[in-house]
Design goal:
Blueprint lengths: L1 H7 L5 H4 L2 H15 L3 H10 L4 H16 L15 E3 L7 E3 H10 L1
Antiparallel strand pairs: 1-2
């Protein structure tokens, strides 16, 4: 499937590196082939190429919601020590738990 995406959309062509269709195909491939395995979904979305940071953030969010926090290996979040540094004015460091709570209230 990965080869087919590259056949249709040449990643070396600047028009396709961040093309919506190619990136949607990469995300679909990652989600379908990873079979709810968080590590695999990250690997597929990164290894396939194109807009890797956006694709990986999206598929990790989707699969994370599906499998639940308890099924994500702590290696993916322990580094942060529960904090997120933002570049938002007057925010700086914020606790991830606070963001979760604020999001949950929405």
């Amino acid at each position: 499937a990965e080869d087919l995406i590259h056949e249709i959309y040449d990643e070396k062509n600047p028009q396709y590196a961040v093309h919506t269709n190619a990136n949607c195909m990469v995300m679909a491939l990652a989600i379908l082939y990873a079979n709810n395995d968080f590590d695999k979904v990250l690997r597929y979305s990164i290894d396939t190429g194109y807009d890797t940071d956006s694709n990986t953030a999206i598929v990790a969010s989707v699969v994370g919601i599906v499998i639940g926090f308890d099924n994500i290996d702590p290696k993916w979040y322990q580094l942060f020590n529960g904090l997120l540094e933002t570049k938002l004015i007057n925010v700086g460091m914020i606790k991830i738990d606070d963001l979760v709570e604020r999001t949950y209230k929405l």
